[in-house]
Every structure is written in structure tokens, then in C-alpha cells.
Amino acid sequence: MRKLTSAVLAAAMTIVAMQTLASAPAQAAAAQEYVALGDSYASGVGAAPYDSASGACLRSPKSYPKVWASFHPAYSAKDVTCSGATIADVRSKQLSALSSRTTLVSITVGGNDAQFSPVATACLTESESYCEAATMYASYYARNQMVGELAGLYTDIKKRAPGAKVVVLGYPRLLAPTGSCGAISPSAAKRAYMNANADAVAEGTRAAASRAGVTFVDMRPVFAGHEACSAKPAINGVNLARLTETFHPNATGYEYYVYLLAANRT
């Protein structure tokens, strides 16, 4: 898949918007409501600066919900994403944004339930064997318990917003097999363990989406060759001054999310 620059993204999104308006005049009078749910990959962590009003949720104007909404002004948008959100947090704190008026829902969640931050910390600071054990534990959860938990959440979303298209955007692989990652560069073995864990989370999310009957978007192909530590990364490497952003998409990475949300919204 061709990688997108900001200019190409803007042109592509403009064309999509024009085609939508031209092909669906009957919908022009109908209210369109977009609700964005999820964790730091949805709120835009990694693409500073952040909206001060969002506090610890760290919502960035460069996040995929914000950018997508800016290209689709016909939609009223509700962004309730929040850094650190778990599956339980989305259910208890974010689902209230949904209603029978909602026509589009995007969601990225599950990474915190699969211990994204502790696993990354372990692989950056501990031994290869410790990293392997941490990723294996997280991967087992992602392929098993997480599937049922996510499927239940997606089903709840459909109940609250019965007329909405629900688009589940997954997580990419995190690290290129070689190259500097910044302040700390994991070994080749650690990178392989972390990417295998990312695969487990992606496949668990895919299985949950299939079980619940919602759309899953696999983000791994579009990020291939642009992981952290690559020559042209779309994911942040290790910056000790901005640890929260480590292994989160940068602004370019969120453009990939925007493009694939647009491509899968109908």
C-alpha cells in the first residue's frame, strides 16, 4: 500500500468526501454522528501537542478521530478517547456518548488490557528471557480472554448505537528488525518477541470483531517498513523525555489510520 504524505492524504480525503456527497444526496438532510472510542492509539498519543482541555486523556488534534472529523464536517463528532483506557474503562466511561443517533463508531482498545506499557518496559529494561516471558503471557491473554472481552464490548456498542457502522482499528507491529530506536534499542530477539505479541493482539482483536459482527481494520500492512527504529518511522522510538509516546504512532502514523477509517466507514 502506498504510504501517505499529508498532502496526499488531504487530496485523498477530499475526493472521498466529494464522492460521498455526490453519491448519497438523500443522506445530506439526515444527521450524521461520529463517536470515537478507545485508548491512547485513538486519542493521538505520540503526536503532540495535546489539547489541554483533555487533561490526562492526551487528545491530540492530529489523532485519527480529529483529522477524520475535520474532513467530514457533515458529521457531528464526539471524541471520548482517553490515554490509558482499558476495555472496562470504555464500557464504564465512554459508551454513554453513543445513542440511536450515532451513525459511525471507531474504536481502538485492548492494548492496555494486554499490558502494553509493562511489556514494553520489560523488553526495554530487562533480559531477553524476561521479555520473552512477558510477551508470551500477554499474547496468551490476547488470543484467549481478550477475545471474549472485546466481543462483549463491541456487542454493547451495537446495542447502544444500533444504526451505526462500527469500525475497529487495530494495532501495528511496533519495531523494525534492525535500526536505532533512540535512547534504548532492543536486541533482535526482543524485537521479534514484541512483534509476535503485537500479532497476537491484532489477531485477537480480529477474532473478537468477527464474533461480534463488526468491521476490523488490520493496521499491520500499512505500517510495514515504517515501524519504530526504521529509516522512515511512523511510530515513535524511545525518547526518555517523552516516555509516554514511546511506540505510539507519530503524526504520519495517524494519517494511515485516517485513510483506513475513511476506506472502511461504509
UniProtKB/TrEMBL annotation:
| SS bond list | 57-82, 123-131, 181-229
**Active site per UniProt:** 40 (nucleophile), 248
Q: Which GO terms describe its molecular function?
A: triacylglycerol lipase activity
Q: Per UniProt, which keywords does this protein have?
A: Disulfide bond, Signal
Question: Which residues constitute the signal peptide according to the record?
Answer: 1-28
- Which Gene Ontology biological process is one annotated for this entry? triglyceride catabolic process
Enumerate the InterPro entries for this protein: SEST-like, SGNH_hydro, SGNH_hydro_sf
Cross-referenced Pfam families, in alphabetical order? Lipase_GDSL_2 (PF13472)
- Annotated SGNH hydrolase-type esterase domain ranges read 36-255
What is this protein's record name? Lysophospholipase L1
